[in-house]
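dumping the sequnces here before i forget
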Amino acid sequence: MNGMWKFTVRRILIMIPQVVLLSILVFIMAKMMPGDALSGLMDPNLDPATLEELREKLGLNDPWYTQYIHWIGDLFHGDMGESFRYKMPVSELIGQRMVNTFWLSLVTLILIYLISVPLGIISGRYNDSLLDQAITGYTYIGFATPLFIFALVLLWIFGFQFGWFPTGGSVTPGSTPGTLDYISSKLYHLLLPAISMALIGTVGTVQYLRNEIIDTKQKDFILTARAKGASESRVYNRHVLRNSLLPIAAFFGYEITGLISGTVFVESIYTYPGMGQLFLESITTRDYSVATALTLLFGIAAILGTLISDIILSLVDPRIRIK
Amino acid sequence: MKQELLQLKNLRTSFRIGDEYYAAVDDVSLTVNKNEVLAVVGESGCGKSALAFSVMGLHTRAKIEGNILFKDHDLAHASPGTMNRLRGKDLGMIFQDPLTALNPLMIIGDQIGEVIYLHNKTLSQANRKKKVLELLDKVGIPRPEHTYNQYPHELSGGMRQRVVIAIAIANDPELLIADEPTTALDATIQSQILDLITRLKKDMHAGIILITHDLGVVAEMADRVAVMYAGEIVEIADVMTLFGRPLHPYTRSLLNSVPNAEKDQDELHVIQGIVPSLKNLPREGCRFKDRIPWLDESAHEENPQMHEVTPGHFVRCTCYKHFHFPKERKEEKHHGIS
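..and the predicted 3d for all of it:
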């Protein structure tokens, strides 16, 4: 277990330069966008000289690295600037949305694994059977279908036509936070967006797991297991499955990255007040400080995703731990 | 007294290519006696491993015809449950490549422990561990306690092959099949592993089928030898007879292609041509015919049978009576140093 800790600590240390590099990139990109933090806030009739004075005062004319240091310093204090559209601190605004997106992503992830692991196992174990062909067919359709179209269709059918699910928002207005009603209403609101994301997001994992299982069951150590007299189900549960699930663990990080782009579409379509919807909105309304903060957060989430992947992988694969 | 342990009767193992089945093991009949090492030799692709896998029932998509008689069972037609009870218990197998034969995610102790557990579920965990440690010691692993908790990638190829052997002999099998157990190892490790198998053989009382293409290994270990070519057995004899008086052209060519340190040899004998692929195996007449084209057609039997030349020495086809090596053509000779 000692090796495990060393690995984890080292892996977390590697993350620091990644995050620093990410923040520099995000900052430079934000600077390259037309306009600046003042563009949206000021009265257009203001005297350009006064505007210039304000810029000087706010440090907007400083070299980029000075500005970057300021920005990072503020970030460390939880200050991500002010949203000119919502007239409130970005941190507060994102804070509210983040909770919603977190739950949506979590439910989606759970659904993805609930769907993909059994399907992948069936498909891989009984490859080329009729069932496998049906599952593979589903994955092809899933690959080919754009999420924003699929989510729209689901919303139209189950939200508007059948009325089984709410068509927007994250909770029924007027319910009191903390009550059971509130929680179930939250869950009810995020179920359809989560299902639409999961049904599309699962296909990669299904295919991956299928291929891994087909690959693993032809390995020599499976013959060894059979030669020991292990029953077919034991061979699968003890030997094939664990070896096949390794890459799925590695895939977990990408799953999170996929979720980020997924929430951007799905939250906008279902008008679900999360980070994804906020992101799209902040871009169309040029709410710079919000867009920049969200880009950084999404980036950090992706880096965290790969970190989690690596740690899981080192937990299940002894070969990685030793190095 | 010879006691028959395993008897193959007209075994035919076929694989599907496209819509047709092609026999990789074609009408093989042989017996393995208790306490005997039967070597099966032949070039790559001649069906040796397919034969071993048929006995172990490890083919998943092959058609198996004929009989494999072992202890009141016919393994060719046994149920999966029966096979699982026999495999690992009465039938042990040593695989070719120790680098891939072990589960990379399982510690050595659990991999050996599994085969003990599968055939003795009432044994306590402590006793099982004790047995595993004894086995590790028996196969010559220097620090059993330490190795018990190691993963395969932490061991060398030779050590891993010892673990594979420990798995195969864990339950004292009556029949041990060693499928080219030394092919994937370094020359120095090879002899260590052979020594180990020879040592184990003495106190195991098992029949052993040793699959190999290494005639040195055969000379060292085997009691009887079956030579396979293109899915058929072409010659069977005890090891002294086979090396002393090889008859079938294929056996003689094989023996002739072993480099000899004592004789002054300018060149290495090479058997002409290659083993035909499964799809293109000649199914009629003498299968070795095409590789000894200098023999007259009339030398071969139309439908080659096994002939018992001396008691226990069988040869297929009549071409052995007419066989001679081709006359060397000087201009094609390759010298080592020119």
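Chain A has a mean pLDDT of 85.
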